[in-house]
TrEMBL record:
DNA-binding region: 45-64
Transmembrane segments: none
Domain spans labelled HTH tetR-type: 23-82
Organism: Actinophytocola gossypii
Protein name: TetR/AcrR family transcriptional regulator
InterPro entries xrefs: Homeodomain-like_sf, HTH-type_TetR-like_transc_reg, HTH_TetR, Tet_transcr_reg_TetR-rel_C_sf, TetR_SbtR-like_C
Family matches, as PROSITE patterns: HTH_TETR_2 (PS50977)
Length: 217
């Protein structure tokens, strides 16, 4: 006669070895993705990232079901740095220093890691973190421009869309080694910041209506 009390079937827990392997695979995927995106951009296929990580495509998709999910996780740390940079600039009582700080650090980030800069300006509709950070950054930069112009430090005809021109110019700096590229980028930005001072008021052509993702180079 069958027992009236049914036994509860327990689901076996993953072994410590399996959990360790899964964590190692995830780290390997993210490290590989950061390197590939930084040097070759976001167009590298998921299958190629898996191959370079030494893993199967199925393993990659188990961890990151979409390219957007992988990009968001790979650059989560940089997103945090970007948010901190913006908060520090908005808290700075010196509007011109705050404006210069943001422009300089954004261009350094672009020169150092082209993968992140492209991820940041790419419209990823399903990655909430990137969408919200983009919107926050755009609002914050508009406010920095307003403050610097109100203080009489930034030329009055500077338009927030001009930051896209800066990113386009800075994105074109490829000077051999990473250090030379960084040095060239810093010098370019220093030249531009001098041109943005309020005392340089020679008339300019009208600003171009450039969206942020026009800076993809």
């Amino acid at each position: 006669m069958a027992s009236t009390s049914a036994k509860v079937r327990e689901v076996p827990k993953p072994s410590p070895r399996l959990r360790t392997d899964a964590a190692a695979n995830r780290t390997r995927i993210l490290d590989t993705a950061r390197d590939v995106f930084a040097t070759e951009g976001l167009g590298v296929p998921m299958s190629e990232i898996a191959r370079r990580a030494g893993l199967g495509v199925a393993t990659l998709y188990r961890r990151f079901p979409t390219k957007e999910a992988l990009v968001a996780e790979a650059f989560a740390e940089q997103m945090g740095e970007c948010a901190g940079m913006l908060d520090a600039a908005l808290a700075d009582p010196d509007p011109w220093r705050a404006f210069c700080r943001v422009l300089t650090e954004v261009c350094e980030m672009q020169a150092r890691d082209r993968g992140f800069s492209k991820a940041f300006v790419t419209a990823f509709p399903h990655v909430t973190e990137f969408r919200e950070m983009r919107e926050r950054a755009e609002r914050g930069f508009v406010e920095l421009v307003r403050r610097a112009q109100a203080a009489g430090a930034l030329r009055p005809d500077f338009d927030p869309a001009d930051v896209v021109l800066v990113l386009l110019a800075n994105g074109g700096v490829h000077a051999g080694t990473s250090q030379t590229t960084m040095d060239a980028s810093r010098r370019l930005v220093a030249y531009l910041l001098q041109a943005f001072r309020a005392e340089n008021t020679a008339p300019l052509p009208r600003p171009a209506a450039l969206p942020l993702d026009a800076a993809l180079t």
